[in-house]
Amino acid sequence: MNSLLFVAVLLLLSAMGYHFGRKRALAGTGGDIRGLHSLPSYYGAYVALWCGLPALLLVGLWLGLQNGIVESLVVSSLPADIRALPAGELSLLLHDIRAMALGDITSSEPGPTVIAAADQYNTLRTIGFAMMVVLGLVLCIGGLTYSWRSVTPVFRARPRVERIVHWILIVASALAILTTIGIVLSLLFESIRFFSHVSPIEFLFGLEWSPQTALRADQVGSTGAFGAIPVFAGTLLITIIAMLVAVPIGLFSAIYMAEYASPRFRAWVKPILEILAGIPTVVYGFFAALTIAPFFRGFGEGIGLDVASESALAAGVVMGIMIIPFVSSLSDDVINAVPQSLRDGSFAMGATHSETIRQVIIPAALPGIVGSVLLATSRAIGETMIVVMAAGLAANLTANPLEAVTTVTVQIVTLLTGDQEFDSAKTLAAFALGLVLFIITLCLNIIALRVVRKYREKYD
Description:
By secondary structure, this protein is mainly alpha-helical. The chain contains 17 helices and 2 strands. Strands 1-2 form a two-stranded antiparallel ribbon.
């Protein structure tokens, strides 16, 4: 029995508990729900929650802690000379033990120590899982029995269930907040380690980006250049090109579909337009590399311009096509949500349809339109595949859209590809890039919220 099967068993027992709790509540009044304090469904939900929730919490806790506990026990059982190895070598050995226990490929030919440790690893996992199953079933059956015996016609099931659901929502909200804090702290701590190797002034204001450092001082390229200005400039350039494509086309298409198109035309065109959002980004990358980039290069050569085979223009245009649905679909929904009374009042004052759109509908829908543009901008900033295939990896400091550039996300992927040493400035640079990108995105969100709040006060 694996973990998913055990969870399915717990959910099945919870469903049975719902049935038994509901049935017991009705039986207490002879089937007349008027004699119950709460609806029968609340009695069933009360029993189901007590039956499944403690056991599911146990499963979640075990799945989160089992690897750390098992690995610590395996390491403690290793010979003393192996436990005294450096942290990097011990981590690699533990990786081989885990890989062999799970049937994966090890980094080297396993020795007797690794084989014995892998057997112990599997044994401990089996014992731990058996203990989890037994304790989970005990909690499930115990909760079922306790809650089922508590069900009486005068039992206040509804307040109990609502209180449990209330705490579940609080825990879910806290987990979301803690996850966000954990992401920020992980970026912050690793970035502090990076800035202990590289000056923040050099990183934020340097004009050369070449993070490929050597492992030994006598190797070529033993000192890297970590000036991130070319990377940020490339990100900004491609994002601006993408937004210049997506915002006008998306906004104009939203206005047409909301104000001018017939219901039949809208029913066909809007789903077709939204298909663009479902196309994999690698397909857009192929389209950019095989169609758009050669077209721009050939067109540029025809008018005497030198266009690189991989250019910011090709990546930005295709990225703009990709994010058109983010602008058009959300803007269309926002425009349709503008009260009809505003339109009627404008028409009553003698305004034409186009004047009504420009002077009434668009200002009233501006908060939602700003939100759609912000979402599209965030999507453009975070895109990787199109940039890799159409704009290249060259960190060029240029404002010329006909040259090759790179972006922050592409560099993060490049730096974290393959085997990594998380004590080197090269690898830690990815976290510094991520932190700066997070701060920039946060500032964009704050600006957008201020714009939305200003115009919302005007039109509410």
